Amino acid sequence: MNALNCKSALMALALAASGASALAATAPAAAVAPAPAPAASAPTADEIVARSPASDWHAVAPDEVLQMTLPQGQVYIQLAPRFAPRHVANIRTLAHEGYFNGLSILRVQDNYVTQWGDPHGDEPEAKPLGAADTHLPAEFSIAYHGIPFDAIKERDGWSPVSGYVDSFPAAADPNRNQAWLAHCYGAVGAARNAAPDTSNGTDLYAVIGQAPRALDLNITLVGRALRGMDLLSALPRGSATLGFYDKPEQLIELQRVVLLSDLPEAERPKVEVLNTESATWRALLRAKRHRSGWFVRSPERVDLCGIVPPARVTAAAQ
To answer: How many CA atoms within 13 Å lie on the side-chain side of 73?
Structure first.
C-alpha cells in the first residue's frame, strides 16, 4: 500500500559615552507601537456567514463531490479537476465502479493524516481496479498564468503568493509559472511510494493536523474535505509505524463512497462553497485580520490555512 513519506531575535543596546570618566549610558529602547485595539461591535465570522446572500455561494458540480460513508457518519470531499485532472478522472472511475466500497481506513497518524485504501495493498487479494488506470503521472502543480487566483496580501514563507483557486487554498510562484494546492487542514491527497508517479487515487489521505506544507509540490492533492473532518480527525490513532493500524479489527470500513452525480437526483444533497470573489468572503477576511470581542490584541493578518472558504451541505428534499 502507498504511504506518505513523510526568532530568535537579537536586541541591540545603544551605548552613549560622555567622556573617559563618564559612566556608559544605555540609550532608551525604541517605543513599541501598541497593537490595534479590536473593534468592540464588529460581527463575528459566524454572523457574517449567517447574513450572507445566496448569490455569494456557488454550487459544486455533483460530479466533483464524493460522499464517503463511515460507520460514524458521512464525509463530503470536493475534487479538484483543475489541479489534478488525471487523478480526479481516475477517482471518478473508481467511484463509479464501487471500488472504494468495503475498503478501510488504514492509518491515523496523530497531528498528520487519516488514510484509506485497500488493506491488501499490492497483494494477490487486492481488489481489482476495473477500468481505472494503474499508473498516472505526478500532478504536483499547474501553470499559474491564466488561472483565477484570488491572492491575499500576506506571505506565508512557503510561496511568493498565497490565495484561493476554485475555493481551494493554493500557493503560487509567478516567476516559475507554477500554482499548486496547499496542504491545509482537510486537504485530500493521493498517497504514493518513493517514486513521484506511484499514486493513482486508490489510496487517499486527509490532513488532520497542523498544515504540513513541506508536502506541497511533493504529493498530488486531489481535493479537500468540506464536511466530516470532525469524523476523520477523531478516529483512534494507529500504533504501528506512521500510524498504521496493525490489527484487522482496528480497520474502519468505508461503507460506501459515491459521486453525488451517481445518486438519484431526489437523493442528491446540495453542496455549496462560499465564492472568494464575494463581499461575504472579503468581510470574513477583514474579520479574521481585525479580531474583536474576546481578543485583547488583534493579529492584523491571516494565514492561508487559517481561513478557508466555508461550505454547506443541504440534504435533498424528501
So the answer is: 11
State pTM to two decimals.
0.87
CB-based burial of residue 16 (10 Å sphere; 0-12 exposed, 13-18 middle, 19+ buried)?
A: exposed
Closest by alpha carbon to 157, among 216, 222, 84?
Answer: 216
pLDDT averaged over 10-residue windows placed end to end, the chain, 318 residues: 40 30 38 52 88 97 98 98 98 98 98 97 91 97 98 95 97 98 98 97 98 98 98 97 96 98 96 97 95 90 96 84
In this structure, what DSSP letter does residue 40 have? S
Closest CA to 61 of 80, 85, 74: 80
The domain that holds 106 is classified in CATH as 2.40.100.10
The answer to whether position 44 is within a domain reads: no
Residue 277 lies in a domain: no
User: Is 173 part of any domain?
Assistant: yes
Compute the distance between CA of residue 314 and CA of residue 67 in angstroms, rounded to an integer: 13
